[in-house]
Automatic annotation (TrEMBL):
The lineage of its organism: Bacteria, Bacillati, Bacillota, Bacilli, Lactobacillales. Residues 1-19 have a biased composition (Low complexity). This is FMN-dependent alpha-hydroxy acid dehydrogenase. The keyword Transport does not apply. Residues 53-339 form the FMN hydroxy acid dehydrogenase domain.
Length: 339
């Protein structure tokens, strides 16, 4: 049976699939490629994904069927129109994991997003690979790592501008490493991002700037102060041990940013259209779908993603109809009951 938390096909691999890179514990991972390339979970209480899943499953839904009609999923995100409030998350490094070197999952994902008319995100790829991946792409947000070398950040912002990104940002939640020091990714040292840094990056570019990995009102307000156009409420598939479920903090962040005009994205274990519905009902303007599309992407490329996305869309539409939500600006958190 497929596990709704992870998309994995049995309980053992479900427990092993999410969260922090744990190369030595990757034996049950269903992903191809070198151990640790695609994050897996330790399945313990410190794994924030466990709590994200439990929180999502504790949210039940009232029915408001009288007067309900088929919903319209068209959504404006930072001034551009898309067919859905569901976007394809940054899931980097995938071209390296495929044993079949003729396959390019990063490009396949970009093409699926374009075909579907949804926003796509690109994460940590070197600028030259990023350029190849987004050749002939639809709208893309480029997320840059919090490099210790700030010059590299400025350079990557410039490349994103040149390549026509619709927004640019930093995954600010990728500063700490599991050794208690600043993380190092692909041999590149990461470093702290101060509020002043964030303000400078946001001011440097005409593109909307996004802070990805906000999980408190404090950081949300700092991002606002820094001039960010948007935030992603996220713990980056459980980088933070014991991380609070993004959906648990989303409503208070939404309230804190009320009237700011900022776009609020959310992600974290959204494995179905029903999960996406809950994030949207709790105040996300749009959601990022990452691991829910990974098995299909790696197995069947663009077509697999399109098929999975159609399933997520059907679930989102079904839930919107049952709850009388006719369009993506009409979500109502009072429909949800926590049990
Ligand atoms: C294989 C993989 C690579 C990722 N790489 C990046 C990255 O480079 N930059 C980034 O901001 N997020 C990255 N993420 C995090 C996702 O964008 C997303 O925040 C996270 O997976 C939570 O969403 P999900 O539960 O739908 O997967 C990555 C996720 C995965 C699974």
């Amino acid at each position: 049976m497929t596990d709704v938390t992870t998309g994995a096909t049995d309980a053992a691999s479900a427990a092993s699939l999410m969260a922090k890179p744990e190369p030595q514990k990757n034996t049950n991972s269903p992903w191809p490629g070198p151990p640790g390339m695609i994050p897996v979970t330790n399945g313990q209480a410190d794994d924030a994904n466990i709590h994200a899943r439990a929180y999502l499953d504790s949210l039940l839904v009232e029915m408001r069927i009288i007067d309900a009609v088929e919903p319209d999923l068209a959504t404006e995100i930072i001034g551009k129109k898309y067919t859905s409030p569901m976007t394809l998350a940054a899931v980097s490094h995938l071209n390296k994991v495929m044993p079949d070197k003729t396959r390019k999952p990063m490009q396949e994902k970009v093409q699926a997003a374009k075909k579907l008319g949804v926003l796509n995100w690109i994460g940590m790829e070197p600028d030259d690979e990023y350029a190849e991946i987004v050749e002939d792409a639809g709208p893309t947000v480029r997320i840059i790592k919090p490099f210790a070398d700030h010059e590299q950040i400025y350079q990557e912002i410039k490349t994103a501008e040149r390549l026509g990104a619709v927004a640019v940002g930093i995954d600010i939640d990728h500063v700490p490493g599991t050794d208690g020091h600043y993380d190092v990714v692909d041999g590149i040292p990461l470093g702290p991002i101060t509020a002043a840094d964030l303000g400078e990056y946001a001011a440097q570019t005409d593109l909307p700037f996004i802070a990805k990995g906000v999980l408190s009102i404090q950081d949300a307000l700092k991002a606002q102060e820094a001039g960010c156009a948007g935030i992603v409420v996220s713990h980056h598939h459980g980088r933070l041990p014991f991380g609070v479920p993004p959906l648990a903090v989303l409503p208070e962040i939404r309230d804190a940013l009320k009237g700011s005009g900022m776009t609020i994205f959310a992600d974290g274990s959204l494995m179905s259209g029903y999960d996406a519905y809950k994030a949207l009902a709790l105040g996300a303007d749009a959601v990022l779908i990452g691991r829910a599309i990974l098995p299909e992407l790696l197995q069947d490329g663009s077509k697999g993603v399109e098929k999975k996305f159609a399933q997520l869309t059907a679930q989102l539409r079904e839930m919107m109809m049952y709850t009388g939500v006719s369009d993506t600006s009409s979500f109502d958190p009072t429909v949800l009951r926590r049990v």
